Amino acid sequence: MNGASWRAAVLLVALVALLLTGCGGTPQPSPTPILPPPSAELPPRSVGGVVTASGEVVAAQEAQMGFIVAGQVSKVGVQLGEEVEQGQVLVSQEAGSLEAGVAQAEAAAEAARAQLAEVESGPRPEELAAAQAAYDGALAQYRKLEAGPSDEELRIALAALRKAEAALVQAQAAYDEIAWMEEVGEMPQTLALQLATLDYESALANYELVTGGPSPDDLAVAWASVESAKAALDALRAGASAEQLTAARAAVAQAEAGLEVARASLRHATLTAPFAGIVADLDVSPGQIVMPGQVVLTLADLTQLQVETTDLSERDVSEVDVGQQATVYVEALSVDVPGRVARISPLPSTLGGDVVYAVVIALDELPEGLRLRMSVEVEIATE
User: Fold this and answer.
1) Which helix (H) or strand (E) holds 259?
2) Domain 63-94+269-300, what architecture?
């Protein structure tokens, strides 16, 4: 077989094999395409100049209330769903320690004010008189000490010494008469001699003190008393310094600030209704310990209801502006309610992995039967 014949035979075999495959061979399965997972993001809901979103009915005025200090709840004066008036007491804390704190702060503030008044008014006449008397007395005592004893003081000291000496001689003579006795220690003459000896030693020490004159140390101590009394008198006469006035006024300001804090803490131990409304949520009971900032009650004004969207995507919010007309379909009532965009939240939240913005719709009318938290569908005309 030449080369041309060989190639022709190969082609013929290949053609037969192809025909057999097409007629009776097993078909090969075609590959299944791999689709990407569905996105968790919400699809855009803007169609033909209208943005749609789901939402719920909310109160235009709502307050989440709690205490500013930790404490035990003493009284819960309302029930869930109860209507309340503005200023009505809702929940109270135990206030015994807070009341004591106010009383203590009031006393501190009053003392600071009295001190400031005293500093500003200057010394009272009786204070000046007392300071003058103290100075005069200290000076007189120093001069007397410096001058030494008078003749009269010398005569008195000498007479006392001689009297004690005579008594001692007499007691010694009486003791000598019984000194030979075995029970001499128990005899009254022995005790009399001891007392006479002590009296003599005391009289002698006093005489030596009077006749010896003051020591340099005695004079120094006496003069220091004079200078101290003089400084106190001069300070009273000069009145308060600028620094003393500033310090006294600062003490008053600090005490009054502490009083205001104590009074505020006492006021906040009682939660009162800031407006008339209904208790929409109540999460507290008597005896419970509550912490600062813990929400224990939610108050809502049901006379002013509005709608807030819950799933308006970030891809649609750019088309929404305040003032745009909106139609709200209330599912539970099967009614459409006209309204307008009143507010667009500047802060986003997340829903199912998508970024959403809350848009508030002010309703032009409130249909009968509209209730808080009802589900709605919102259509906002963006063109």
Assistant:
1) helix 242-267
2) Beta Barrel (2.40)
**Rounded CA separation 381/341 (Å):** 10
Residue 360 in contact with residue 312, Cβ under 8 Å? no
Distance set, CA 380 to CA 55, 58, 273, 324, 330 (Å): 12, 18, 35, 7, 15
Run of H or E residues at 232? helix 216-238
Alpha-carbon span 308 to 182, nearest angstrom:
119
Q: Which CATH architecture has domain 46-60+304-381?
A: Beta Barrel (2.40)
Please, what is the Cα angle at 84 between 79 and 90, to 5 degrees? 60
Collapse the DSSP code of 119 into the 3-class scheme (helix H, G, I; strand E, B; otherwise coil) and give the result.
helix
pTM of the model: 0.48
pLDDT tens-digit series, residues 289-348: 999 989 999 999 988 899 999 999 999 999 999 999 999 999 999 999 999 999 999 999
CB 274 within 8 A of CB 299: yes
CA distance 359 to 364: 16
